[in-house]
Design goal:
Layout: E1 3-7, E2 10-13, E3 18-25, E4 33-39, E5 45-51, E6 58-60, E7 68-73, E8 78-83, E9 92-99, E10 116-117, E11 121-126
Parallel strand pairs: 2-11
Antiparallel strand pairs: 1-3, 3-8, 4-5, 4-9, 5-6, 7-8, 9-10, 9-11
Length: about 130
């Protein structure tokens, strides 16, 4: 089993920044591909960003491209999502996810690709 705990969410004004963290425990973190998803009220849970197990490859969804950076520190079992120039439409619950079976330097972008999920952290962007 893997436990994922997100932190860093909160209320921020449009144009502001936030850094989300996801701490993992229970298994070898460096063997997992990681992702960040978000879900706004009444909407699907969508990919925000993904990162390969080594951190060498990353993916960003179009709505956030250029405004977020995903990174990981395998020594600290933590993945980060740095968000800049936040917009009201970024308001959502943000979830961290881990995939156990990985191949090479792949990242994964579908919800069904992931085996473990955190409880989520709320991000609210006011206009």
């Amino acid at each position: 089993q893997v436990q994922l705990v997100e932190s860093g969410g909160g209320l921020v004004q449009a144009g502001g920044s936030l850094r989300l963290s996801c701490a993992a425990s229970g298994r070898t973190f460096s063997s997992f591909a990681m992702g960040w998803f978000r879900q706004a009220p009444g909407k699907e849970r969508d990919i925000v960003a993904a990162i390969s197990r080594s951190g060498g490859r990353t993916y960003y969804a179009d709505p956030v491209k250029g405004r977020v950076t995903i990174s990981r520190d395998n020594a600290k079992n933590t993945v980060f999502l740095q968000m800049y120039a936040l917009k009201p439409e970024d308001t959502a619950v943000y979830y961290c996810a881990a995939r156990e079976r990985t191949y090479g330097a792949n990242y994964y972008t579908r919800r069904d690709d992931y085996d473990y999920w955190g409880q989520g952290t709320q991000v609210t962007v006011s206009s």
